[in-house]
Amino acid sequence: DGGITQSPKYLFRKEGQNVTLSCEQNLNHDAMYWYRQDPGQGLRLIYYSQIVNDFQKGDIAEGYSVSREKKESFPLTVTSAQKNPTAFYLCASSSIPGVNQPQHFGDGTRLSIL
Amino acid sequence: GQQLNQSPQSMFIQEGEDVSMNCTSSSIFNTWLWYKQDPGEGPVLLIALYKAGELTSNGRLTAQFGITRKDSFLNISASIPSDVGIYFCAGSQGTPLVFGKGTRLSVIA
């Protein structure tokens, strides 16, 4: 079945460590997105990519980095510079960037600090 | 960044009741979307709206794209226990979606 796969489902990080969250899609979508969700805050955009080898910062990019080397993959690295990384992270994709296409979401990764 | 005002923040209703929630924006949007999120999962698309005034149904769900293009509402008729969850509105002007903060729906059997 086509869809978006995020892994792992749960991730624990020690202070000072970088961690990478995986997002893979087999929907042949051009655009991919990363959101952070905190209780009562809705979804906030971290980074997005409309094409391979290109990406743009969202509203809360500080402390995060991404890469888009392949169309189907958009990993997110939470760096040690992100002082409050505990959150639920959601990856999404859409078929045609910039043309109001609905985004489809993975099931998320919950990151916690040990 | 842009923000959407979604209301109410939470609702407690009896099974069988109808539900209404809405989103407003200070900006004009070309697209309004409604999503539902169950605990520990990603949001799932319920309804997509692309034209001002558009009224679209998906089973017991009905959503409308406001004439001013600055608002949208979602109605759920005859609620059932599996309607429990968080409902998000999202708007777009051809840029990445802007999300509301969600309406948490609880259904009392």
What keywords describe this structure?
heterodimer; A: 114 residues; mainly beta; 11 strands; globular; B: 109 residues; five-stranded antiparallel sheet
How would you characterize this protein structure?
The complex is a heterodimer of chains A (114) and B (109). In chain A, 0% of the residues lie in helices and 51% in strands. Chain A has no helices and 11 strands. In chain A, the strands form 2 sheets. In chain A, strands 2, 4, 5, 6, 9, 10 and 11 form a 7-stranded mixed beta sheet that branches. A 4-stranded antiparallel beta sheet of chain A has the order 1-3-8-7, with no helix packed on it. In chain A, a hairpin with a 2-residue loop joins strand 5 (42-51) and strand 6 (54-57). Chain B is mostly beta strands and 109 residues long. Chain B is built from no helices and 11 strands. Chain B has strands at residues 4-7, 10-14, 19-25, 31-37, 44-49, 55-58, 61-65, 71-76, 85-92, 98-99, 103-108. Chain B starts with a strand and ends with a strand. At the A-B interface, strand 5 and strand 10 of A face strand 4, strand 5 and strand 9 of B.
H/E topology pattern of chain A = EEEEEEEEEEE
Arithmetic mean of pLDDT of chain A: 92
Binned, the helix content of chain B reads under 10%
Tell me the series of helices and strands of chain B, N- to C-terminal.
EEEEEEEEEEE
Unreliable parts of chain A: none
Alpha-beta classification of chain B: mainly beta
